[in-house]
Design brief:
Length: 154
């Protein structure tokens, strides 16, 4: 076997180390440029202080978001009782009275509880009726128009 020429080996290793050195120098210059841009905004803190401040702000934002989510859920639960669904039907209950002057109006919450109001208009006068609605139906007998108004609200 022929002995390895150490001068070529040392030269190759030196070139490799020189390339690594230049590569590291380029990476550090890029990192320094990013650092200068980051701290050029008038921040007179070191990186550790900046990270601690950002962590505090992130913790505060997370707590605020949790509080907002809790409030939103409470509002959603409270809103279930509000009128959310409306149905309105106009009709003519009597052949001798002209026009669709009578109506049925249903006002329901998210759980289909509420009221249906009906107005029957005739030549002699107008009568108004109200019936309670639970789960989309009533203990009182509903007219066809009242059922249509309830169905329209859904």
């Amino acid at each position: 076997m022929e002995p390895v020429n150490l001068s070529y080996f040392n030269l190759g290793l030196s070139v490799l180390l020189l390339l690594c050195f230049f590569w590291m120098l380029i990476r550090f210059k890029r990192l320094d440029k990013v650092r200068q841009q980051f701290f050029s905004r008038g921040i007179n803190k070191n990186l550790e202080e900046v990270l601690v401040d950002q962590n505090r702000k992130l913790t505060t934002l997370t707590e605020n978001l949790d509080s907002l989510n809790k409030n939103l859920k409470e509002l959603q639960n409270l809103n279930k009782a509000n009128i959310q669904k409306i149905g309105f039907i106009r009709f003519n209950p009597f052949d001798d009275a002209g026009g669709n002057m009578s109506f049925s109006l249903s006002l329901l919450n998210a759980e289909d509880n509420g009221i249906v109001i009906s107005s029957l208009h005739s030549r002699e006068g107008t009568r108004i009726y109200a019936k309670g609605i639970k789960k989309g139906s009533s203990d009182s007998k509903l007219t066809e128009e009242e059922v249509r108004a309830i169905n329209q609200a859904n």
